[in-house]
Amino acid sequence: MVAKLLDGKKLAMEIRTHLKQRVQELKQKGVTPKLVVILVGNDSASRIYVRNKHRAAQKIGIETKDIELPQEITENELLAYVKKYNEDDSVHGILVQLPLPAQINAEKITHAIAPAKDVDGFHPVNIGHLFMNDPHALPCTPHGIMQFFKKYNISLMGKHAVIVGRSNIVGRPMAAMMLNNDATVTITHSKTKNLSELTRQADILIAAIGQAEFIKKTDVKPGAVVIDVGMNRNDKGKLVGDVDQKEVAEVASYLTPVPGGVGPMTIAMLMEQTVKFAERGVQNVDGEVSNG
To answer: Which residues form a coiled coil (predicted)?
Structure first.
Protein backbone atom coordinates (compact mmCIF):
# COMPACT_ATOMS: atom_id res chain seq x y z
CA MET A 1 0.00 0.00 0.00
CA VAL A 2 1.14 3.53 -0.78
CA ALA A 3 -0.84 6.31 0.86
CA LYS A 4 -2.77 8.74 -1.30
CA LEU A 5 -1.55 12.26 -0.55
CA LEU A 6 -4.13 14.82 0.56
CA ASP A 7 -3.08 17.83 -1.51
CA GLY A 8 -3.52 20.94 0.62
CA LYS A 9 -2.13 23.30 -2.03
CA LYS A 10 -4.63 22.16 -4.63
CA LEU A 11 -7.59 22.22 -2.24
CA ALA A 12 -6.63 25.66 -0.89
CA MET A 13 -6.50 26.96 -4.46
CA GLU A 14 -10.02 25.64 -5.14
CA ILE A 15 -11.29 27.33 -1.96
CA ARG A 16 -9.58 30.61 -2.86
CA THR A 17 -11.22 30.56 -6.31
CA HIS A 18 -14.63 30.19 -4.67
CA LEU A 19 -13.81 32.89 -2.10
CA LYS A 20 -12.82 35.30 -4.88
CA GLN A 21 -16.35 35.01 -6.27
CA ARG A 22 -17.88 35.61 -2.82
CA VAL A 23 -15.68 38.70 -2.34
CA GLN A 24 -16.80 40.07 -5.73
CA GLU A 25 -20.44 39.62 -4.69
CA LEU A 26 -19.77 41.48 -1.43
CA LYS A 27 -18.07 44.33 -3.29
CA GLN A 28 -21.13 44.65 -5.53
CA LYS A 29 -23.07 45.31 -2.32
CA GLY A 30 -20.54 47.99 -1.32
CA VAL A 31 -18.63 45.87 1.22
CA THR A 32 -14.92 44.99 1.03
CA PRO A 33 -13.85 42.30 3.52
CA LYS A 34 -11.06 43.70 5.68
CA LEU A 35 -8.57 41.84 7.85
CA VAL A 36 -6.26 43.51 10.38
CA VAL A 37 -3.12 41.54 11.30
CA ILE A 38 -1.11 42.78 14.29
CA LEU A 39 2.52 41.67 14.48
CA VAL A 40 4.60 42.43 17.59
CA GLY A 41 8.39 42.24 17.42
CA ASN A 42 10.74 40.67 14.87
CA ASP A 43 10.11 36.92 15.05
CA SER A 44 11.22 35.70 11.61
CA ALA A 45 8.72 32.81 11.39
CA SER A 46 5.88 35.17 12.35
CA ARG A 47 6.93 37.60 9.62
CA ILE A 48 6.76 34.79 7.04
CA TYR A 49 3.30 33.77 8.25
CA VAL A 50 2.05 37.37 8.08
CA ARG A 51 3.48 37.81 4.58
CA ASN A 52 1.79 34.60 3.40
CA LYS A 53 -1.54 35.72 4.87
CA HIS A 54 -1.20 39.11 3.19
CA ARG A 55 -0.52 37.52 -0.21
CA ALA A 56 -3.42 35.10 0.12
CA ALA A 57 -5.78 37.94 1.02
CA GLN A 58 -4.63 40.06 -1.91
CA LYS A 59 -5.25 37.22 -4.38
CA ILE A 60 -8.92 36.97 -3.46
CA GLY A 61 -9.60 40.68 -2.96
CA ILE A 62 -9.61 40.94 0.84
CA GLU A 63 -8.23 44.25 2.08
CA THR A 64 -5.50 43.77 4.69
CA LYS A 65 -3.95 46.15 7.17
CA ASP A 66 -0.70 44.93 8.71
CA ILE A 67 0.17 46.66 12.00
CA GLU A 68 3.81 46.20 12.99
CA LEU A 69 4.55 47.05 16.62
CA PRO A 70 7.85 47.13 18.55
CA GLN A 71 9.01 44.21 20.70
CA GLU A 72 8.92 46.37 23.85
CA ILE A 73 5.27 47.45 23.51
CA THR A 74 3.26 47.18 26.75
CA GLU A 75 0.22 44.96 27.18
CA ASN A 76 -2.05 47.98 27.66
CA GLU A 77 -0.78 49.59 24.45
CA LEU A 78 -1.50 46.40 22.52
CA LEU A 79 -4.96 46.13 24.10
CA ALA A 80 -5.65 49.68 22.91
CA TYR A 81 -4.96 48.62 19.30
CA VAL A 82 -7.31 45.65 19.66
CA LYS A 83 -10.02 47.91 21.11
CA LYS A 84 -9.59 50.37 18.24
CA TYR A 85 -10.22 47.72 15.59
CA ASN A 86 -13.00 46.05 17.59
CA GLU A 87 -14.85 49.37 17.29
CA ASP A 88 -14.03 49.95 13.61
CA ASP A 89 -17.04 48.81 11.55
CA SER A 90 -14.95 48.62 8.36
CA VAL A 91 -12.85 45.81 9.91
CA HIS A 92 -14.32 42.29 9.73
CA GLY A 93 -11.45 40.25 11.16
CA ILE A 94 -8.67 40.83 13.70
CA LEU A 95 -5.68 38.56 14.15
CA VAL A 96 -2.83 39.06 16.62
CA GLN A 97 0.09 36.95 15.44
CA LEU A 98 1.50 34.61 18.09
CA PRO A 99 3.90 34.21 19.83
CA LEU A 100 3.93 37.50 21.74
CA PRO A 101 6.81 38.93 23.82
CA ALA A 102 7.16 37.77 27.44
CA GLN A 103 5.70 40.97 28.95
CA ILE A 104 2.35 40.35 27.23
CA ASN A 105 -0.23 37.79 28.34
CA ALA A 106 -1.32 36.19 25.05
CA GLU A 107 -4.51 34.83 26.61
CA LYS A 108 -5.56 38.30 27.72
CA ILE A 109 -5.04 39.64 24.19
CA THR A 110 -6.95 36.74 22.60
CA HIS A 111 -9.84 37.30 25.01
CA ALA A 112 -9.91 41.02 24.16
CA ILE A 113 -10.69 40.45 20.46
CA ALA A 114 -14.42 40.76 19.79
CA PRO A 115 -15.80 37.21 19.20
CA ALA A 116 -17.51 38.43 16.00
CA LYS A 117 -14.09 39.50 14.61
CA ASP A 118 -12.07 36.58 15.98
CA VAL A 119 -10.83 35.06 12.71
CA ASP A 120 -8.47 32.72 14.58
CA GLY A 121 -11.45 31.23 16.43
CA PHE A 122 -9.61 31.22 19.77
CA HIS A 123 -11.94 33.39 21.88
CA PRO A 124 -13.52 31.40 24.75
CA VAL A 125 -16.99 32.37 23.51
CA ASN A 126 -16.25 30.86 20.10
CA ILE A 127 -14.61 27.77 21.61
CA GLY A 128 -17.67 27.36 23.83
CA HIS A 129 -20.00 27.52 20.82
CA LEU A 130 -17.82 24.92 19.06
CA PHE A 131 -18.02 22.49 21.99
CA MET A 132 -21.80 22.99 22.14
CA ASN A 133 -21.94 22.03 18.42
CA ASP A 134 -23.13 25.54 17.50
CA PRO A 135 -19.99 26.93 15.84
CA HIS A 136 -19.71 30.66 15.11
CA ALA A 137 -15.96 30.92 14.38
CA LEU A 138 -13.57 27.98 14.07
CA PRO A 139 -9.84 27.62 14.76
CA CYS A 140 -8.32 27.62 11.28
CA THR A 141 -6.01 24.59 11.38
CA PRO A 142 -8.61 22.03 12.56
CA HIS A 143 -11.20 23.68 10.31
CA GLY A 144 -8.82 23.19 7.37
CA ILE A 145 -8.32 19.53 8.30
CA MET A 146 -12.09 19.01 8.23
CA GLN A 147 -12.10 20.19 4.60
CA PHE A 148 -9.84 17.26 3.64
CA PHE A 149 -12.40 14.77 4.95
CA LYS A 150 -15.15 16.55 3.03
CA LYS A 151 -13.19 16.83 -0.23
CA TYR A 152 -11.94 13.24 -0.25
CA ASN A 153 -15.24 11.73 1.02
CA ILE A 154 -13.63 10.33 4.17
CA SER A 155 -16.49 9.40 6.50
CA LEU A 156 -15.98 10.16 10.20
CA MET A 157 -19.13 8.48 11.50
CA GLY A 158 -18.23 5.88 14.10
CA LYS A 159 -14.52 6.08 13.25
CA HIS A 160 -11.94 6.11 16.04
CA ALA A 161 -9.96 9.35 15.80
CA VAL A 162 -6.79 9.61 17.89
CA ILE A 163 -5.30 13.09 18.31
CA VAL A 164 -1.69 13.39 19.45
CA GLY A 165 -1.45 16.80 21.15
CA ARG A 166 -3.85 18.82 23.33
CA SER A 167 -3.10 22.44 22.43
CA ASN A 168 -5.85 25.06 22.35
CA ILE A 169 -4.88 25.79 18.73
CA VAL A 170 -5.21 22.27 17.31
CA GLY A 171 -5.77 19.33 19.65
CA ARG A 172 -8.73 20.47 21.75
CA PRO A 173 -10.80 22.17 19.00
CA MET A 174 -9.97 19.28 16.63
CA ALA A 175 -11.49 16.86 19.15
CA ALA A 176 -14.69 18.93 19.30
CA MET A 177 -15.01 19.05 15.51
CA MET A 178 -14.51 15.29 15.23
CA LEU A 179 -17.12 14.68 17.95
CA ASN A 180 -19.52 17.01 16.18
CA ASN A 181 -19.12 14.78 13.11
CA ASP A 182 -19.85 11.53 14.97
CA ALA A 183 -16.30 10.23 15.42
CA THR A 184 -15.18 8.53 18.63
CA VAL A 185 -12.29 10.62 19.91
CA THR A 186 -9.21 9.91 22.02
CA ILE A 187 -6.88 12.79 22.90
CA THR A 188 -3.31 11.87 23.79
CA HIS A 189 -0.47 14.06 25.02
CA SER A 190 2.99 14.10 26.62
CA LYS A 191 1.75 12.37 29.81
CA THR A 192 -0.13 9.59 27.98
CA LYS A 193 1.11 6.08 28.78
CA ASN A 194 1.54 3.46 26.05
CA LEU A 195 0.95 6.06 23.35
CA SER A 196 1.74 3.70 20.46
CA GLU A 197 -0.95 1.26 21.64
CA LEU A 198 -3.53 4.03 21.27
CA THR A 199 -2.27 5.41 17.94
CA ARG A 200 -2.39 1.89 16.46
CA GLN A 201 -6.14 1.80 17.19
CA ALA A 202 -6.80 4.96 15.16
CA ASP A 203 -8.84 4.89 11.97
CA ILE A 204 -7.90 8.57 11.74
CA LEU A 205 -4.64 9.71 13.33
CA ILE A 206 -3.94 13.42 13.77
CA ALA A 207 -0.38 14.27 14.82
CA ALA A 208 0.02 17.74 16.34
CA ILE A 209 2.77 17.23 18.89
CA GLY A 210 5.58 19.44 17.54
CA GLN A 211 8.27 16.74 17.40
CA ALA A 212 10.01 16.00 14.12
CA GLU A 213 9.03 12.66 12.54
CA PHE A 214 7.73 11.35 15.88
CA ILE A 215 5.06 9.05 14.41
CA LYS A 216 6.61 5.95 12.81
CA LYS A 217 5.22 3.14 10.70
CA THR A 218 4.84 0.95 13.80
CA ASP A 219 2.56 3.58 15.41
CA VAL A 220 0.00 3.44 12.60
CA LYS A 221 -2.86 1.01 11.94
CA PRO A 222 -2.75 -0.27 8.33
CA GLY A 223 -5.22 1.71 6.21
CA ALA A 224 -5.47 4.63 8.65
CA VAL A 225 -5.96 8.22 7.49
CA VAL A 226 -2.98 10.19 8.85
CA ILE A 227 -3.03 13.98 9.21
CA ASP A 228 0.37 15.57 9.86
CA VAL A 229 0.02 19.01 11.46
CA GLY A 230 3.71 19.38 12.38
CA MET A 231 6.16 21.93 10.99
CA ASN A 232 9.63 21.18 12.31
CA ARG A 233 13.26 21.27 11.21
CA ASN A 234 15.12 17.98 11.45
CA ASP A 235 18.82 17.70 12.34
CA LYS A 236 19.69 18.42 8.69
CA GLY A 237 17.61 21.60 8.69
CA LYS A 238 14.95 20.11 6.42
CA LEU A 239 11.30 21.04 6.96
CA VAL A 240 9.47 17.94 8.21
CA GLY A 241 6.24 17.10 9.98
CA ASP A 242 5.42 15.15 13.14
CA VAL A 243 5.08 12.02 10.98
CA ASP A 244 7.88 10.04 9.35
CA GLN A 245 6.37 10.51 5.90
CA LYS A 246 8.39 7.88 4.05
CA GLU A 247 7.68 5.12 6.57
CA VAL A 248 4.03 5.97 7.25
CA ALA A 249 3.19 6.27 3.54
CA GLU A 250 3.75 2.49 3.34
CA VAL A 251 0.84 1.70 5.71
CA ALA A 252 -1.59 4.65 5.66
CA SER A 253 -4.48 4.96 3.17
CA TYR A 254 -4.28 8.77 3.12
CA LEU A 255 -1.54 11.13 4.32
CA THR A 256 -1.09 14.90 4.34
CA PRO A 257 2.38 15.90 3.06
CA VAL A 258 4.71 18.42 4.73
CA PRO A 259 4.98 20.99 3.26
CA GLY A 260 1.86 21.35 1.11
CA GLY A 261 -0.69 19.68 3.37
CA VAL A 262 -2.28 21.30 6.40
CA GLY A 263 -0.35 24.60 6.13
CA PRO A 264 -2.04 26.03 2.99
CA MET A 265 -5.44 24.98 4.36
CA THR A 266 -4.93 26.93 7.58
CA ILE A 267 -4.45 30.16 5.62
CA ALA A 268 -7.37 29.32 3.30
CA MET A 269 -9.66 28.93 6.33
CA LEU A 270 -8.48 32.26 7.73
CA MET A 271 -9.53 33.89 4.47
CA GLU A 272 -12.82 31.97 4.42
CA GLN A 273 -13.65 33.10 7.94
CA THR A 274 -12.90 36.76 7.12
CA VAL A 275 -15.25 36.58 4.13
CA LYS A 276 -17.90 34.83 6.23
CA PHE A 277 -17.74 37.60 8.87
CA ALA A 278 -18.17 40.24 6.13
CA GLU A 279 -21.14 38.31 4.69
CA ARG A 280 -22.66 38.03 8.16
CA GLY A 281 -22.45 41.81 8.51
CA VAL A 282 -24.27 42.30 5.19
CA GLN A 283 -26.97 39.81 6.22
CA ASN A 284 -27.46 41.64 9.52
CA VAL A 285 -27.91 44.95 7.71
CA ASP A 286 -30.27 43.35 5.18
CA GLY A 287 -32.23 41.83 8.03
CA GLU A 288 -32.60 45.19 9.76
CA VAL A 289 -33.83 46.80 6.53
CA SER A 290 -36.33 44.03 5.78
CA ASN A 291 -37.64 44.11 9.33
CA GLY A 292 -38.11 47.88 9.16
So the answer is: none
